[in-house]
Design brief:
about 325 residues; alpha/beta; 5-stranded mixed β-sheet; Integrase_cat-core; 15 helices; nucleic acid binding; Nucleotidyltransferase, domain 5
Length: about 325
């Protein structure tokens, strides 16, 4: 089985398709065509036909797979064969252009005679040559490994339109009603681990809560939110506003755990939750990105939280967030007695 790598032939793909349809294991298919098991696994993942219009037509079809592989090699070779084009793409990546912007501008500059898809640029960025140049760090959203193209879940299903910030009631927008919060994560240098700090701010009083997370998994973060906000009376925890980060995909836990609703900023618009963004800027004076968070104790975070809540704010008439928060909490509680 040990041999120098060569692209799969049409006949090999036909055998793979036939055996895969019979539900033969990938290991057995690999032995049949005298290939490594990883080659078969990669082939089935990369050239599996996804049909969003007719789901029943999905599957691994050898003719389609062969055409997909050939098209991928042709588009990828545009950047491999053409050093001037490759240099232009790399320069624009380093200047902060996204693959979509590069492809769109290239079409204009060439008068429509030359086309390069954003997908081709992404493939080049995550190729061996792209990794050697560390091109992924110039992308708007960097990942160590690219997610499968058809394995990405549409965010619209995770964050439904009815929860979009444009549908948030005006009493929340104008801060006239108490008990509505904004939440975000403060991220630190990658080399210091994946620990982060959650910032939770009440919109009317600017009262701030801080707690540390060991990673960015959504469910533990939601559980921490429930634990910190749960002891408050119901009118003090009516809703939370988040951005569309994956750390907030388990937001439905809040409905059962707190009875609170959730609202979400538009894509790429974290400024729409300006209260918590402004709070994060203030906190960065004490928690800069190079902070080794695992060396920061819970008492340190508690002391920082107290400092934030006991500092007078001009927007509050120079009262402190703690004073406003207590007054609003007691006022509603007293009325209900």
């Amino acid at each position: 089985m040990a041999r120098s790598f060569a692209q799969l032939s049409f006949d090999e793909r036909r055998i793979i398709a036939r055996l895969h349809e019979r539900q033969i294991s990938q290991a057995e298919i690999a032995r049949t065509i005298r290939r490594d098991r990883s080659t078969v696994c990669r082939e089935l993942k990369r050239n599996f036909w996804h049909d969003q219009v007719v789901p029943a037509a999905e599957g691994y079809w050898h003719l389609t797979a062969h055409q997909m592989a050939a098209a991928r090699r042709r588009s990828y070779r545009k950047l491999v064969r053409n050093p001037l084009l490759r240099g232009d793409v790399v320069d624009r990546l380093k200047n902060g252009w996204s693959p979509e912007q590069i492809a769109g501008r290239l079409k204009i500059d060439s008068g429509g005679t030359f086309r390069l898809s954003p997908e081709t640029i992404y493939q080049f960025v995550y190729s061996r040559e792209g990794k050697e140049q560390d091109l992924a760090r110039f992308l708007p959203e960097r990942r160590r490994k690219r997610r499968p193209r058809y394995g990405r879940k549409p965010r619209s299903l995770v964050f439904p339109i009815e929860c979009a910030i444009r549908n948030r009631p005006e009493v929340i927008n104008d801060r006239s009603q108490f008990g509505h919060w904004e939440a975000d994560l403060m991220i630190f240098r990658k080399e210091h681990g994946s620990a982060n700090v959650a910032t939770v701010v009440e919109r009317k009083s600017r009262f701030t809560l801080l707690f540390r997370n060991n990673d960015r998994r959504s469910r533990p973060i939601m559980n921490q939110l429930i634990n910190h906000l749960g002891p408050l009376p119901a009118h003090a925890r009516q809703s939370l506003t988040f951005d569309r980060g994956l750390e907030f995909v388990a937001w439905r836990e809040l409905e059962s755990g707190l009875g609170a609703s959730a609202w979400f900023c538009d894509p790429q618009a974290p400024w729409q939750k300006g209260t918590v963004e402004n709070t994060n800027r203030r906190l960065r004076r004490y928690l800069p990105p190079e902070t080794i968070l695992l060396e920061t104790s819970h008492d340190d975070l508690k002391a920082l939280c107290q400092r934030m809540n006991d500092t007078p704010r001009k927007c509050l008439g120079f009262q402190t967030p703690r004073e406003i928060f207590i007054a609003e909490t007691l006022a509603e509680t007293t009325q209900s007695v």
